[in-house]
Structures are given as C-alpha cells and as structure tokens.
Amino acid sequence: MRILVSIDDTDTMKMDGIEVRGTGELAGLIKKAIEEQGWGRCAPITRHQLLIHPDIPYTSHNSSMCFEADIENSFLKPLIDFASDFLTNESAPDSDPGLCVAVTDRISRPGWLISFGYMAKNYVLTKQEAYDLAEMLGVHLSEHGGTGQGVIGALAGAGLRFSGNDGRFKGKLKIKAENDIISVGDIRSLGKVDMVKCLEEGIILQDNDMIILGDHIKPVWLYGKSVLLVSAIDEEVNGRPRWQTYSKNQMKDF
Amino acid sequence: MWTISDKGEREFTGGKEDWAAAAHIAEECPGFKDDDEDEMVADEAVSCYNCRYRRWTVKSFVCCK
Q1: A252 and B41: CB-CB below 8 Å?
Q2: First to last CA, chain B
Q3: B40 → closest Cβ in A52, A62, A248
Q4: What interface predicted TM-score (ipTM) does this complex get?
Q5: Which of A77, A147, A239, B32 is 20 to 30 Å from A34 by CA-CA measure?
Q6: Inter-chain residue contact A247 with B43, CB threshold 8 Å
C-alpha cells in the first residue's frame, strides 16, 4: 500500500549552545528507519509552506514535511507506533508536534484532504477542524507533545503532497558536470528529476537541451513529478546554453 | 532598518526582498548563524533571510537573537 507520512511543528527556535533538529531532519530519520526496518521504500521528502499569521504559533517558518512510502499492509501499525514514539521522544521540548499517516487508496474524499492543505496556506485553521476531517477521511492524525498544534500542519502537509502540486524537495542535488553544463537527458538519467521546465515560457525542456547548473539544484513537486525549474538567459552567447537552474531567491515561493 | 513591535520584537523594515540590506546587516552581525539549507531563501550565503534566528512575519521577519 502507498502511504503519506507527514509531520509538523517538531522544532523550536534554536538558542545559544543548543542544537535542535529541525522537522526536515526528523522526517529524514523516520524515513530512514522505515527503510532500515524493511517496512518499505520511501520517496524523497517535500517541504510545504503554510500560512504565516500572528495567530499561528509557528516556530520560525511554519512549514511541514511529507513523504510517500510503499509498505506492506502489516507494517502500517508498527510504522505509526514507531513514528509516534519517535516524535514524542525526539521533538524539541517546547514544540507541538503532529503526525499524519494516510493510506492513499483509503482516503474517502481525496479532494477534501487536498483542499485542507490549500486552506492551511491561506487561512488560520484549528486543531478540531483537522481532527474532524482526519476522522471523516479515515487517516491517522495524532499529537505528540505541547499543544499538539502541529496536527494542523501535518494533515495539511499530507494534502499538499497528495495534490502533486506544492512544495520543494528537502535537500539539494549534487550533480557534477564539466563547466556546470549538462543535458536534460543526463540529469533525468540520475533518477532524481522527472522533468526540467521553464515556467515563465511554459516550456518543458527536451533531453538534448543543455542547461547551466547553479549552486542550488533543488526540484519542486509539480504535476506529481520532481520538476527542476530553469529560467531563460537573455541571449545564447558563444554557444552557452539558454537555460539556468533557479537560484534560492527564485525558489522561495515554492 | 528595524521597528519595534508591541511585543518588543525587532522587525526588519525591508520586507522579504531587500536582499542587499539583509546581507549587509548579517555580515555585521555577530549573532548570525545559518539556518537549515531547506529554509534558506537568499542567494547571499550570509543574510538575515538565511539566519536561524529570523522568524518570518506577514510582511518581513523579526530577529530573535
């Protein structure tokens, strides 16, 4: 079965001399544990930006982390138990962690889950709304410390990942290429990028198109694919490629 | 470059896209510490926008250092 594992609000503001693991790192450790236990195979983690608002008690950026996994049915309960205990024990002391685990084929109204995700990017939602929807949809939602406010982001993260059209992948890709120039086909053959696209011009690049790699190579989650975004360089000079990967500035809205 | 909120927090007046000012302030700031890579948004490595002590607000960020 395919599941979505989503967590939120596991961290706290890092203060002098205290290193606190972020939500992305904890998601990575849960993912690693799933694979080490032999429970299944996991897809890369995506980060989903939620609403920044004075009424929302986020730590510093209000984002959730989610990944898909393919597991055997019998491992669902052990996985939920493990992730629950892990968040209880490993989240920062002052955090409000939440966990969502959704079996994608059992979600009774997929559109409602996706809508909740987009709502959480635009409106202040409540824990009760999250729990009510989770119960209606038949997905696991639980809190593991503090106020448990993270259940809102956890459910939203699952919805946004399920939408196929939100967020950016955790981490950045390390691709070596001579003069930082590589073909789309060679990038796709590495298995981490499904598509290379220029949104401004609405163009999907072909395998023989060449692109210039920046120092921040990070795909986004669009069309249910891992999409590497590029922008057009004004002129093709001296045979240089016409396309360049997005910079951090350009990525910030994803 | 800063305003003080009702809560006593220092909020950056440059908003979320004053890349040069955010980099300049961070270069002078002894408290700067880079955030997780996934939370960095500025191309300049040293920038308030990439600092683990910034907390985003609706219009800008507050410095929690």
Answers
A1: yes
A2: 15
A3: A248
A4: 0.91
A5: A147
A6: yes
Whole-model pTM: value is 0.94
Q: What is the pLDDT along chain A (254 residues), one digit of tens a residue?
A: 999 999 998 776 655 555 667 889 999 999 999 999 999 999 999 999 999 999 998 888 899 999 999 999 999 999 999 999 999 998 888 889 999 999 999 999 999 999 999 999 999 999 999 999 999 999 999 999 999 999 999 999 999 999 999 999 999 999 999 999 999 999 999 999 999 999 999 999 999 999 999 989 999 999 999 999 999 987 666 777 889 999 999 999 89
Domains of chain A: 2-168 (3.30.70.2200), 172-251 (no CATH)
DSSP secondary structure letter of residue A149? T
Q: Is B43 on the interface with A (CB under 8 A)?
A: yes
Query: Which uninterrupted H or E stretch holds A196?
Result: strand A195-198
Angle between helix A110-122 and helix A127-137 axes, rounded to 10 deg: 170
Provide the 8-state DSSP code for A44.
P
Please give, rounded to a whole number of angstroms, the shortest distance from the CA of B42 to a CA of chain A: 5
